[in-house]
Write a structure and sequence with these properties.
Number of helices: 3
Structural class: mainly alpha
Radius of gyration: 24 Å
Order of helices and strands: HEEHH
Number of domains: 2
Low-confidence stretches: none
Mean pLDDT: 82
Strand order of the largest sheet: 1-2
Number of strands: 2
Helix content: 55-70%
Largest sheet: 2 strands, antiparallel
Shape: flat
Length: 103
């Protein structure tokens, strides 16, 4: 969602009433608050992880905190396209799809 005062550059649009305008304003404010809270949560996680060091589990009051390293099996197609190009990435993805076994 972007804010612009250059309406002449925008294709035809509908005009919001006061209620919807207030809702848009509230949404923009909430999204800003969410970003701030997510940043604060990440900071707290980093501090907790630093305290735990190599330990996977810790008791904090009545909470059991667990951090385990996980391995992602996802493929970063954007990075692969940069290295392999579109043609080779398509071949790679086709091979990967054919290698998946499901019952």
């Amino acid at each position: 969602m972007t804010h612009t005062s250059h309406y002449r550059d925008i294709k035809p649009f509908c005009k919001a009433n006061d209620i919807i305008t207030t809702k848009v304003s509230d949404l923009v404010e909430l999204n800003g608050m969410i970003e701030e809270l997510q940043a604060e949560a990440e900071k707290l996680k980093d501090e907790i992880k630093a305290y735990m060091g190599d330990e996977e589990t810790m008791m904090a009051g009545t909470w059991r905190v667990t951090w385990k390293e996980t391995v992602s099996r996802r493929v970063d197609t954007t990075a692969l396209k940069k290295v392999l190009g579109d043609a080779l990435i398509q071949i790679f993805l086709d091979l990967l799809r054919s290698a998946v076994y499901r019952e």
